[in-house]
Amino acid sequence: MKRKLTFILATLLLGACIGAKASPVEDRNDLITYYKQIFPDIKFEDYIYGTLSMNTSAKSQYDDIMAFPPYAIDLDKGQKVWESPFKNGKQFSSCFPDGGKNVAGIYPYYDKATARVVTFENAINACLRANGEQDLSYGESEMGLLTAYARSLSDGMKINVRVEGVDALAAYEKGKAYYYTRRGQLNFSCASCHVNNAGKFLRGDQLSMMIGQASHWPEFLAGTDIVTLQKRFMQCNRNTREIPLKANSEEYNDLEYFLTYMSNGLPMQSPVYRK
Amino acid sequence: MPIKTIIFLFFIATLNCANLCLAADGVNEKSYGQSLTFDSKKGNCLACHAIPSEPKAVFPGNIGAPFAKIKQRFPDRAKLRAQIWDATVSNPNSSMPPFGRNKILTEQEIDQVTDYIQGL
């Protein structure tokens, strides 16, 4: 009897640790509580700044750079593509409510009809296809520049990703499982770095908290090198010495779904500068 | 023999010689253990551990404890080696990569790193 009780308790504890049976709401609340303990002085709204929120001088340097962003010319290119008419005379704005303003925060969403997660990039390609145009490659700079502008139309919108229904929950759970699974020769999970060691230094790199990470994509790394969120997944996969997956793979889309849900309630800003 | 092959063989020969020379010399043995510890493609221990007694160990990470008084903390060399070989044995949640189990370092390299760390 005693043994059985210990077993039940142990299972419960384990469940609490990895959040195995918790709902998305509980997962998110647990993480918020956890990060509050590690970062008692950082405001929740500032989690969108990642490591910048942990370093006042780096943050003020960042603010200066963002006043005159070095990627302004690149962003103009994205705007031009967004505004250029397709061969049929229509524009991207025709594919989204309100011409594409304040829409990006609901992505990714789970689409019951196609039984898959739909990212904002998927919606861009669906728009191109519906208008008889060619898809753009996922993760490449053309898609990056276009979405940098398209997402900027949603600046300030609060992220509002929904996980409703059994199938949506299953996709969320797959993304979550990916996040917490160790892989690669170095045996890290995403959580090893961004949950367990958030705020610590890996050599010269301080590690950002996971909540807030999905709010500001794409990024211009070093000012001009454009990186989409899923490109960043690839870079982090390489940190663990494993072969990255493909942009727009089902695994990455599920991961993006989970990760973006975790940033719910935080304001979007695109694009941003990062070192 | 194509020139590429010759260059390759020459390269291998130099590598072997370098290894032999290192093995023959105790001082170099230590510095070899140190370079394995520092090398970001090998131990990369500095990613997580500081070495307060070593001025060359700049910008270390702080995920693991600094390497200091290791002999006091690990009087048993086998225990120290085991920690490096697979840290998840003593702590399943450890963030430290399992250098032996996942063959990040060879058995010989683990010995060299162990010897170097134990001297700190």
TrEMBL record, chain A:
GO biological process: sulfur oxidation
Matching InterPro entries: Cyt_c-like_dom, Cyt_c-like_dom_sf, SoxA
EC number(s) reported in the record: 2.8.5.2
Primary location recorded for the protein, binned into one broad class: periplasm
Stretches of the chain forming a coiled coil according to its record: none
Cellular compartments annotated: Periplasm
Catalytic activity line of the entry: S-sulfanyl-L-cysteinyl-[SoxY protein] + thiosulfate + 2 Fe(III)-[cytochrome c] = S-(2-sulfodisulfanyl)-L-cysteinyl-[SoxY protein] + 2 Fe(II)-[cytochrome c] + 2 H(+); L-cysteinyl-[SoxY protein] + thiosulfate + 2 Fe(III)-[cytochrome c] = S-sulfosulfanyl-L-cysteinyl-[SoxY protein] + 2 Fe(II)-[cytochrome c] + 2 H(+)
Gene Ontology molecular function: any one: heme binding
GO cellular component term of the entry, any: periplasmic space
Domain Cytochrome c: 77-159, 174-268
Presence of keyword Transferase: yes
Entry keyword set: Electron transport, Heme, Iron, Metal-binding, Oxidoreductase, Periplasm, Signal, Transferase, Transport
Enzyme class: transferase
TM region positions: none
Family: Belongs to the SoxA family.
Protein name per its UniProtKB record: L-cysteine S-thiosulfotransferase subunit SoxA
Native organism taxonomy: unclassified sequences, metagenomes, ecological metagenomes
UniProtKB/TrEMBL annotation, chain B:
Positions of the Cytochrome c domain: 28-120
MF terms in GO: electron transfer activity; heme binding; metal ion binding
Keywords: Heme, Iron, Metal-binding
Pfam families per record: Cytochrome_CBB3
Name of the protein described by the UniProt record: Cytochrome c domain-containing protein
The species this protein was found in: mine drainage metagenome
